[in-house]
Amino acid sequence: MSRLGDLIRQERMRRGIAAKALAKKCGVSEKFLLEIEAGTRIPRDDQAQRVLKAMGAEAPMASSFTLDDIAATVDLQSALPRMEKAPVAQPKAAPEPAKGIAGSIWLDALSEVLQRVPIYNAVMKEVGSRLLPVKNGKVEGAAKDKVFYFQAPDDQMRGFRVHRGDLVLVVPSKAVEDGAMLLLDSPQGKVLRLAKLLPRYQVMLQRYDSAFESEIVNLADLQVVGRCVRLEAEL
Questions:
Q1: Domain 1-59, what fold?
Q2: Over the chain, what HEC string results?
Q3: Which class is 116-232 in CATH?
């Protein structure tokens, strides 16, 4: 049973309303209503709102949903394009869409617990996306709309377990942490390097393809894009 169907059924039973009577009041068939309650049918947003309104119940709030609740209520893959694309053009008579995922009483909750995180290649062109959980409005401790994935363009970091095509989650940061993997701006474009802090405000940047290589640069000369906090690799 889905969270939405559970809510409708519980409210209907609590208020002592027969399924047939509620269905008639909402302008849908009894079979249709029972399928919603059983979680075997996902209604359109206006249908779900009409059922809840007919019982005098309020739409569920985002704070009452968990990640599992939403996953059980809606197909996340079908929801993703709605998050990616803004509404094109609304008819003049149509109301202004609400901020967030327009027109959905349960997909509105989606943006509170999941964030679409873009995947960028070496020239920072978006090549895909992932959905990541949001905790207290943040992803990996950073603003949820600032984090992104970087797709490793080569095997220069394979000695550090990052191979070509692997994804590293990047948290924007200008700071250089000793032992951290960083995404840097360089004359060759965006590159991944392991950083080791040295005396006299210098940093050793390490890479490891077929052999270990390093270079020492002044801390002031580094152009840090962000710190890598997670690795995702294909098996």
A1: 434 Repressor (Amino-terminal Domain) (1.10.260)
A2: CCHHHHHHHHHHHHCCCCHHHHHHHHCCCHHHHHHHHHCCCCCCHHHHHHHHHHHCCCCCCHHHCCHHHHHHHCCHHHHHHHHHCCCCCCCCCCCCCCCCCCCCCCHHHHHHHEEEEEEECCCCCEEEEEEEECECCEECCEECCCCEEEECCCCCCHHHCCCCCCEEEEEECCCCCCCCEEEEEECCEEEEEEEEEECCCEEEEEEECCCEEEEEEEHHHCCEEEEEEEEECCC
A3: mainly beta
